[in-house]
Amino acid sequence: MRYSRREFGKLALAGLPASWAIANSPLSAQASIDSKINGVQIGAITYSFRTMPNAEDIIKAYVTIGLGEMELMSNHAEALAGAPSSGGGGRGRGTLTPEQEAAREAAAKASQEWRMSATEATFKPVRQKIEDAGIDLRLLCYNMNVRNTKDDEIEYAFMMAKGLGVSAISTSTQVSMAKRLAPFAEKHRMLVGFHGHANVTNPDEVATPESFEAVMAASKYLGANLDIGHYTEAGYDPVAFIKQHHARITNLHLKDKKKATNGGGNTPWGAGDTPIKDVLQLLRKEKWPIPANIEFEYAGDPLVEMPKCFQFCKEALTTTPLPW
């Protein structure tokens, strides 16, 4: 079933969060770093800073760059909440020594015990820490895979999201996971945006327009975290998708990729086939409150390259809009 933005507004009054696109959350007004450009909220997913081992430094990077909206990866949320490392010792392709195996098992046990003891209160200080830095925490990215995610972990993900005070969860997963997630999303009245990739050969992968529509048909709480780079690489037009499904989009991921027919792969912004500028100008023109989050994936130092991506957004949104 499809819903118009007006119909989703009615659903919000009936119990959904105030905005499917999240930007109208009352918490967002507390952010002091303004990275909204001509009405379009630019932010980033913390995955962009995955090479930085200290999650505290990731928060500092947002402040330095001037990014006022955050999509927080679950591993970063746990690190900020004081979780022990689950890495253990001796990870690699070679055979582990008995000592390395014991260390890995002990680390995994400690991590699991920490998770089992965690409550919503465990994650509330994480939100406060991010807000104190002037950043608006809007989404939790918690990847729930159909092959290895148990129901208690799904429940844990929604508990974490509620403790963090976000209005939606983004997740990289499969189409068949929609039926499993739907009752949890409905129980917690929490929106879930399915992230797409470019694998169009597997019908269980979220990649094609039909796969996104299958996800959204499973529940009014399920929608799209549209990665415009992957969608372009898969051979589809993100501008057309946004026009059709804007009421069901939790947030965008911004990256530049080449179409698969041109070799595929990530590129510095402006060197690929992704219509980043067109997408941003569409959001500006239509005033759709969909957060547009930079996801840095091409080679380079995020502290050097992320400001370039942000500047690309600024320039795209301060030029004359396209005549749609």
Describe the structure.
The protein is an alpha/beta fold and 324 residues long. It has one domain: Divalent-metal-dependent TIM barrel enzymes (TIM Barrel). It contains 12 helices and 9 strands. Strands 2-3-4-5-6-7-8-9 form an 8-stranded parallel β-barrel, surrounded by 8 helices. α6 links the parallel β4 and β5. α5 packs across α6 (151-164) and α11 (276-286) packs across α12 (302-318). The protein starts with a helix and ends in a 6-residue tail after the last helix. The model is unreliable at 1-31 (pLDDT under 50).
Top keywords for this entry?
alpha/beta; TIM Barrel; 9 strands; 324 residues; 43% helix; disordered N terminus; eight-stranded parallel β-barrel; 12 helices
Proportion of helical residues: 40-55%
Order of helices and strands: HEEHEHHHEHEHEHEHHEHEH
The gross shape turns out to be globular
CATH architecture name: Alpha-Beta Barrel
Query: How many distinct helices?
Result: 12
Distance between the termini: 27 Å
Low-confidence stretches: 1-31
What is the number of domains?
Answer: 1
> What is the CATH class designation?
Alpha Beta
Structural class: alpha/beta
What order do the helices and strands come in, and which of them pair?
Layout: H1 5-13, E1 36-37, E2 40-45, H2 55-65, E3 69-73, H3 74-80, H4 98-117, H5 120-132, E4 136-141, H6 151-164, E5 168-172, H7 177-188, E6 191-195, H8 209-218, E7 222-227, H9 228-233, H10 238-245, E8 249-254, H11 276-286, E9 292-294, H12 302-318
Parallel strand pairs: 2-3, 2-9, 3-4, 4-5, 5-6, 6-7, 7-8, 8-9
Antiparallel strand pairs: 1-2
Helix pairs in contact: 5-6, 6-7, 7-8, 11-12
